[in-house]
Amino acid sequence: MTFFMIKCVCVYLSGIGFGLIVNLPHKALNIAGINATIGWLVYYWILTTWGGLGAPNFFGGLVIGVLSVIIARWKKMPSILFDVPGLVPLVPGGQAYNSIKNFALGNYQVAFNYLSQVVWIAGSIALGFIVAELVNKIQQKFRQTRARN
């Protein structure tokens, strides 16, 4: 349990740290860290219950995307400010590094295995963001229709 709490704190700090690197407004840093943590918790929960690479990253990206839109409306800021720091814990940096390393060492079979993982994870996260944007558009249309009636 202690190790899990340390992971949660590190994910929160990674969201804040990346927010500092990309010059996020200081009033958005805390919320960006919380968004990253919630997205990672969804990722971690699905990873431990279902396993795999696609579903955890898809649902993590989906939650980050939906929460970013909600937070952006609440804070009256662009949602991209909360998307990018929330995405950082899900990025497949380890697999990308191992892919490049194995290409350089001549281990092409292992390198392509890691590269396929990178593509699968990145595609899952991107699809999660696309579905989150689709949910946002449907919600906007629903609100507009409801306001007219």
From TrEMBL:
Superkingdom, taxonomy of origin: Bacteria
InterPro entries attached to this UniProt entry: ThrE_2, ThrE_Dicarb/AminoAcid_Exp
Membrane spanning stretches: 28-47, 53-72, 117-136
A cellular component annotation (GO) from this entry: plasma membrane
Residue ranges annotated for the Threonine/Serine exporter ThrE domain, each copy included: 8-135
Keyword field: Cell inner membrane, Cell membrane, Membrane, Transmembrane, Transmembrane helix
Pfam families: ThrE_2
UniProt record, GO biological process: succinate transport
Cell compartments where the protein resides: Cell membrane
Membrane topology listed for this record: Multi-pass membrane protein
Family under the similarity heading: Belongs to the ThrE exporter (TC 2.A.79) family.
Protein name: Threonine/Serine exporter ThrE domain-containing protein
The species this protein was found in: Lentilactobacillus kisonensis DSM 19906 = JCM 15041
